[in-house]
Amino acid sequence: MIRLLIFASVVLLVIISVFLLKKSSVFLPLMPNDDPDENRQFLHQFGVFYLILAAIGLLVGIVNLTFFSLFYIFGLLVISTVFSVMLAKKIL
């Protein structure tokens, strides 16, 4: 069951990272206070982070060890929380 969750998260991470890397112009109107180049760099940075997490998730899903799986899910939640908080600070 954890393996299925990891592979589903890998698919979602790839979709989100491609969206952040290729379609960053969708998010730019939401962040009017800062420099547009800085905002693009912010979105690009987290897009790359999510691609790296997807690659790690693929490896963790193949290996299928419970400790690494739970540690991966914890790390994924932490990175997602950091992105959400930082994006909220930029928007507000």
Could you characterize the architecture of this molecule?
The chain is mostly helical and 92 residues long. It contains 3 helices and no strands. α1 packs antiparallel against α2 (36-63) and α2 runs antiparallel to α3. The N and C termini lie far apart (38 Å).
In short:
The protein has 92 residues and is mainly alpha-helical.
Feature tags:
single chain, 92 residues, elongated, mainly alpha
Blueprint (SSEs and pairs):
Elements: H1 2-22, H2 36-63, H3 66-91
Helix pairs in contact: 1-2, 2-3
The major β-sheet equals: none
**Chain-averaged pLDDT:** 89
Q: Which stretches of 5+ consecutive residues score pLDDT under 50?
A: none
Count of DSSP helices?
A: 3
Distance between the termini: 38 Å
Overall body shape: elongated
Number of strands: 0
Q: Tell me the fraction of residues in β-strands, as a range.
A: under 5%
